[in-house]
């Protein structure tokens, strides 16, 4: 049995893990998800949040050895948490996530990819302290292989994201880099190109790199398969 803490990516919240939590519990694990500051039901104004706030919120949610899973932008959040205090982190798992490279913020990390499917969708607020994704042209970048009803559930819940958080590098040290780490590539991802995910995963041990035949949202498209893979990773 393992304890999982599930961390959402940009513009999402704990709500996106609704199907994964019971799937993990059915496999004998404990699992929960939290809203990072400014997301979901958390009342913090998003334009006042920072990457440090995200990392601290994760640390504050940990009381016992826990496997921490970060999706997409959540890769930066979970790494920041490890840099704040890795005491209760058993393993970091990056799910089609950005992994921090030295000196690069998430915004800079995104630009290392050969393709930029998300850039045309980003809309800055008037203050330039937050941004949203314009999905008026469709949700294919996020949910193209997800079950009917996914758009109706997810779209009203999407929120703005902090530019300060995405514009801040993680000061990497052995605190995060010495932890057991795994990467899950989503091979049908239309938000973070799979080739770029594989490039980021090259910095992981080969035996700690896995794949799902999924879009950017495996928590909706294949929650059971995702839970089974997480189960496999912690059982290694």
TrEMBL record:
<dbReference type="GO" id="GO:0080030">
    <property type="term" value="F:methyl indole-3-acetate esterase activity"/>
</dbReference>
<dbReference type="Pfam" id="PF12697">
    <property type="entry name" value="Abhydrolase_6"/>
</dbReference>
<feature type="domain" description="AB hydrolase-1">
    <location>
        <begin position="4"/>
        <end position="227"/>
    </location>
</feature>
<protein>
    <submittedName>
        <fullName>Esterase EstC, putative</fullName>
    </submittedName>
</protein>
<dbReference type="InterPro" id="IPR045889">
    <property type="entry name" value="MES/HNL"/>
</dbReference>
<dbReference type="InterPro" id="IPR029058">
    <property type="entry name" value="AB_hydrolase_fold"/>
</dbReference>
<dbReference type="InterPro" id="IPR000073">
    <property type="entry name" value="AB_hydrolase_1"/>
</dbReference>
<dbReference type="GO" id="GO:0080032">
    <property type="term" value="F:methyl jasmonate esterase activity"/>
</dbReference>
């Amino acid at each position: 049995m393992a304890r999982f803490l599930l961390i959402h990516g940009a513009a999402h919240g704990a709500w996106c893990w609704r199907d994964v939590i019971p799937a993990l519990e059915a496999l004998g694990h404990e699992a929960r998800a939290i809203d990072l500051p400014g997301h979901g039901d958390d009342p913090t104004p998003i334009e006042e949040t920072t990457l440090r706030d995200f990392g601290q919120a994760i640390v504050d949610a940990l009381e016992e050895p826990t496997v921490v899973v970060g999706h997409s932008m959540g890769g930066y959040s979970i790494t920041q948490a490890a840099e704040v205090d890795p005491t209760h982190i058993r393993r970091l798992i990056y799910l089609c996530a950005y992994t921090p490279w030295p000196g690069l913020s998430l915004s800079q990390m995104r630009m290392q990819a050969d393709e930029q499917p998300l850039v045309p969708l980003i809309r800055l607020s008037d203050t330039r302290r937050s941004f949203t994704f314009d999905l008026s042209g469709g949700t294919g970048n996020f949910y193209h292989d997800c079950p009917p009803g996914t758009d109706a559930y997810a779209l009203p819940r999407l929120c703005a994201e902090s530019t300060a958080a995405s514009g801040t590098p993680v000061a990497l040290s052995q605190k995060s880099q010495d932890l057991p780490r795994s990467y899950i590539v989503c091979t049908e991802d239309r938000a973070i190109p799979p080739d770029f995910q594989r490039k980021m995963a090259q910095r992981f041990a080969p035996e700690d790199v896995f794949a799902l035949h999924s879009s950017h949202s495996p928590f909706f498209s294949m929650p059971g398969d995702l839970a089974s893979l997480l189960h496999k990773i912690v059982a290694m």
